[in-house]
Every structure is written in structure tokens, then in C-alpha cells.
């Protein structure tokens, strides 16, 4: 073998070896979720949904034979811990994406890490509008609706259904809860609604006893109580409020996270009838093949029906995979940002004839919202009630206008 032939064979061997190594590359995603306590179900359901999405994505394949892998760590919904974990993911685990997060406070902390390290952060759960408004940064994208979208639909529902003029509000005392009432007031004002706030109540997150708040709400005599809790706090409040007869004295309206499946599955037959609610995903709406398929895949994989968090965690993986396919790799972060901006994709929660899309200016997913009323429905056990009599509000009517975003930037400097 002459020198030229040996050199050629050596070069071919190097190329072949590099190609084999390249084809086996794993693209790591660092996910943060609470895995225990009142928020633990969301983390567990998100992890289960991620596994379903990974099977689909990796079976379909990515450019160069790459595979996605997701590391899930318990952030306990604590901002400081979430920051520590996010930095570790980037510097030690070499993840290409940050992912998940249930608590808006934790997400607001993690988005700063994302910005500092120029690492894309795909939010799948938290809903504080701040993240896509005054705290917006180019590496953050959200694949679930924010509170403004929910409250915009809620304001229209209050007007459409003529539920009453006197409004009280109760919600958790941090960004998620504070945003909701500010947004509801703004949207009602834009609609020219004639309303009066007769009380605002701010228990801490994971409050154990709502007795003092319930008695104060009853004394305020609102026509409508708007609630801004999520998860276990919603269940605890409803159980305690029912014991005091609160739902016989006023309308109960929970336009963001009240109608989550886990609320109904936990309450069972204790769920009051006639509560007005919505959620970021409904197991029984829309009645499309895409939604039915997702719900059944989750049920088959876990033996239970999904909480709302599962759908966001599922579609986020599909969104990342689609961006990687468009770019051809996961190394060009700036190209991935461009691929994600304006991306359209059919989500399980999309009604027939509509596709969710990412707003290129705010990086917020744009989606329709459905508000319903609790009615007897035992098709999704152990729940005995689900939402029905839905009223649907179109996606293009729900995004915060620029004047509201400018207002947030002025007031939260």
C-alpha cells in the first residue's frame, strides 16, 4: 500500500468514525418540575407525557440520527433551587434546552438564566403574563396559554352571560395571582363593562386554612367570586368553601386553572354543580381525534387520565423536535429561535380548523379558550363531574395588546 493510498484510507476512516459518533449524538433537555407536594402531580404527569412524546419523536427520527433525551429534576417550585438546577444543567449536563417549570415565580427566575447563558427555555406550564411581556427575552418560548388569554376570555364571558356587577377576587399572593386580577380589570375596562370590585383576598401559596378568607368573602356579598388558584389549592378552597355554603350565595368563576381534570378527579362526587371554569387543557374538549388520541395514549401509559400539565409537556417536545428538523441541528441557537418564532402546530387542545402558533413578537403560544360549567359526567373516572356547555373564544381576540404590555413595563420597572 503506497503512502497516498494509506492517507486516503486513513481520511476515510476518520470521516466514517466521525459520522458514526455524530449519528449517535443525544440532544439533552433539562426539565424542572415539582415532583411532590400539592404541585407534585403536575411534575409526574409532565414526566409521563414527555416520555410519550420522546417515543414518538425518536421513532420518527431527527437529522443525523440524533435522539432527544430529557433529564427531569424536582425544583420544588422554589425559584432559588430552580436557578441552581438550571445553571447546573447548562454548565455540567450540557443541555441544549431548559424546559418545563410549574411555578411562575420559578419561571421568572429561570428565564434570567436562559437569557444569561443564551439557552432556549421552553415553558410548558406556568402562566404569568410577565414572561412574555415585561420580562420577555428572546430565548424564552411558552407552549401553554398565559393568564391574560384566560382573563380576556373570562371578561368576555362575564359580559356575555351577565353574571353580575359586584366582583370579588381570591388568588395566590405572587405574580400568577396578581397578574390575573390586573388583567381581568383591564379587559373588563376595554369592554366598557360596568363592574365594582368589592374585595381582593391574597392567601399565600399552599395555604392550609381558608376560613378567614371565606367568611370575609361572604361578608363582601359579591355577585361573582373570581378565583385564581391552581392545583391542590383549588381543591382545598372548594372543599372548605362548600362547607360554608359559599356557592349558594354567589357565582364561582375560575377562568384559568379551575377546570383542570385533577380538580375533578380529586373532588369526585364532592364537586359542586354549576361552577364556571376553564383550563389549559380539557380531556373532553375539543371532541377531535387529536385530543382523544392524546388522552387515550396517556391513559394507556399511566393508567390514569391526564392533568392539564401533561398536554403542555407533551407538545413542547414536539415543538423542539420540529425546530431541530427545520434547522438541521441543535447547535445553532439563533437559528432555532428563528425556527420557533411563528411556528404552527396542531395541538390536542386545538378545536377543529385551528392550529396553535407561536407569536413571533412575544414568543407566546396563541390558542383558543373554552369556558364551561361543571355538570355530571362519569366518563373520566374517578371524576364524577366535568365541564360542559362550553363557550369558546377565538385565539386572535385574546392576546394582550401593545398598550397593556407597555403598561406592564412602566408599572413593573
Describe the structure in your own words:
The chain is α/β, with parallel strands linked by helices. The chain folds into 2 domains: 218 residues, Response regulator (Rossmann fold), CATH 3.40.50; 181 residues, Response regulator (Rossmann fold). It is 44% helix and 18% strand. A 7-stranded mixed beta sheet has the order 7-6-8-9-10-14-15. The longest helix is centred in the N-terminal third of the chain and has 21 residues. The N terminus is likely disordered.
What structural class should be given to the helix and strand makeup?
A: alpha/beta
Q: Provide the spatial order of strands within the biggest beta sheet.
A: 7-6-8-9-10-14-15
Largest sheet: 7 strands, mixed
User: Which architecture of the largest domain per CATH?
Assistant: 3-Layer(aba) Sandwich
Annotated CATH homologous superfamily of the largest domain: Response regulator
CATH top level of the largest domain is Alpha Beta
Roughly how much helix do the residues carry, as a percent range?
A: 40-55%
Q: How does the SSE layout of this entry go?
A:
Elements: H1 3-23, E1 26-33, H2 40-60, E2 67-74, H3 79-91, E3 97-100, H4 104-117, E4 120-123, E5 140-142, H5 147-161, E6 166-170, H6 175-190, E7 196-201, H7 211-220, E8 224-227, H8 232-243, E9 251-254, H9 261-267, E10 276-278, H10 289-302, H11 308-327, H12 333-340, E11 344-345, E12 356-358, E13 365-366, E14 369-376, E15 385-393, H13 402-411
Parallel strand pairs: 1-2, 1-3, 3-4, 4-5, 6-7, 6-8, 8-9, 9-10
Antiparallel strand pairs: 10-14, 11-12, 12-13, 14-15
Helix pairs in contact: 2-11, 3-4, 5-6, 11-12
Amino acid at each position: 500500500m503506497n503512502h497516498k493510498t494509506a492517507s486516503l484510507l486513513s481520511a476515510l476512516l476518520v470521516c466514517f468514525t466521525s459520522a458514526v459518533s455524530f449519528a449517535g449524538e443525544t440532544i439533552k433537555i433539562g426539565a424542572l418540575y415539582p415532583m411532590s407536594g400539592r404541585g407534585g402531580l403536575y411534575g409526574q404527569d409532565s414526566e409521563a407525557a414527555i416520555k410519550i412524546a420522546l417515543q414518538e419523536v425518536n421513532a420518527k427520527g431527527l437529522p443525523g440520527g440524533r435522539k432527544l433525551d430529557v433529564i427531569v429534576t424536582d425544583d420544588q417550585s422554589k425559584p432559588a433551587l430552580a436557578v441552581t438546577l438550571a445553571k447546573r444543567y447548562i454548565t455540567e449536563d450540557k443541555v441544549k434546552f431548559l424546559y418545563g417549570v410549574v411555578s411562575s415565580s420559578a419561571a421568572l427566575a429561570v428565564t434570567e438564566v436562559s437569557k444569561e447563558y443564551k439557552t432556549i427555555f421552553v415553558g410548558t406550564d406556568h402562566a404569568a403574563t410577565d414572561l412574555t411581556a415585561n420580562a420577555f427575552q428572546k430565548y424564552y418560548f411558552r407552549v401553554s396559554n398565559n393568564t391574560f388569554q384566560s382573563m380576556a376570555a373570562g371578561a368576555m364571558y362575564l359580559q356575555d352571560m351577565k353574571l353580575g356587577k359586584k366582583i370579588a377576587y381570591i388568588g395566590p399572593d405572587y405574580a400568577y395571582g396578581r397578574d390575573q386580577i390586573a388583567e381581568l380589570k383591564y379587559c373588563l375596562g376595554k369592554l366598557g363593562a360596568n363592574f365594582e370590585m368589592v374585595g381582593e383576598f391574597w392567601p399565600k401559596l399552599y395555604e392550609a386554612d381558608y376560613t378567614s378568607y371565606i367568611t370575609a368573602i361572604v361578608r363582601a356579598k359579591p355577585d361573582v367570586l373570581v378565583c385564581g388558584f391552581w392545583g391542590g389549592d383549588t381543591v382545598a378552597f372548594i372543599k372548605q368553601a362548600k362547607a360554608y355554603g359559599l356557592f349558594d350565595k354567589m357565582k364561582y368563576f375560575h377562568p384559568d386553572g379551575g377546570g383542570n381534570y385533577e380538580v375533578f378527579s380529586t373532588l369526585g362526587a364532592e364537586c359542586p354543580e354549576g361552577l364556571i371554569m376553564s383550563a389549559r387543557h380539557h380531556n373532553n374538549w375539543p371532541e377531535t381525534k387529536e385530543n382523544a388520541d392524546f388522552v387515550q395514549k396517556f391513559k394507556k401509559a399511566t393508567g390514569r387520565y391526564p392533568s392539564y400539565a401533561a398536554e403542555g409537556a407533551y407538545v413542547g417536545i414536539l415543538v423542539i423536535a420540529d425546530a431541530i428538523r427545520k434547522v438541521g441541528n441543535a447547535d445553532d441557537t439563533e437559528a432555532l429561535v428563528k425556527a420557533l418564532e411563528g411556528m404552527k402546530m396542531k395541538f390536542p387542545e386545538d378545536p377543529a380548523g385551528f392550529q396553535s402558533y407561536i407569536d413571533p413578537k412575544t414568543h407566546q403560544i396563541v390558542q383558543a379558550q373554552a369556558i364551561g360549567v361543571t355538570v355530571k359526567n362519569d366518563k373520566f373516572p374517578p371524576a364524577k363531574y366535568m365541564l360542559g356547555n362550553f363557550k369558546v373564544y377565538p385565539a386572535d381576540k385574546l392576546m394582550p395588546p401593545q398598550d397593556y404590555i407597555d403598561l406592564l413595563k412602566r408599572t413593573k420597572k
